[in-house]
Amino acid sequence: MAEDAYGMWLAAPLDGTFHLPDGTVDTVAGPNLQLFPLDQWWTAWWWAGDDPQVTVDICPPAVRDGDDLVWVDMALSVELDADDEVHVAEGALEVITTMSVIPVEDVNAAINSNIMVTKRLRIGDPLFTVVGPRKLATL
Fold this sequence. Notes:
Number of domains: 1
Mean pLDDT: 82
Distance between the termini: 10 Å
Strand content: 25-35%
Radius of gyration: 15 Å
Order of helices and strands: EEEEEEEEEEEHHH
Low-confidence stretches: none
CATH superfamily: FomD-like
């Protein structure tokens, strides 16, 4: 879609498709908008519909690979629902750490990002409460 000071913005129309690394094509419930800040340990999704919300996935920074944008979902997320309630997915980092899937410095970066994103959502950071919803409304 576009790139600005926040990062790379991508949009998916209602029932848009995406491609997994193994070649599988899947459908994402849409419309939605996604922001990839290329230097941060998170990516944000704004979801339209009857129950609008923003979900922030805690993950390593996305990397450009030609025309593709590659990122790894760590199954750790923070959500801001339509009632401005913040929900934190608990337990995902403990499972990843126990399985020794990622290096300890990456675990620490994910923990710090999770704390920072949770605080930003709780204080109503305009990126999540104004900028993203305005962009989503243009889809």
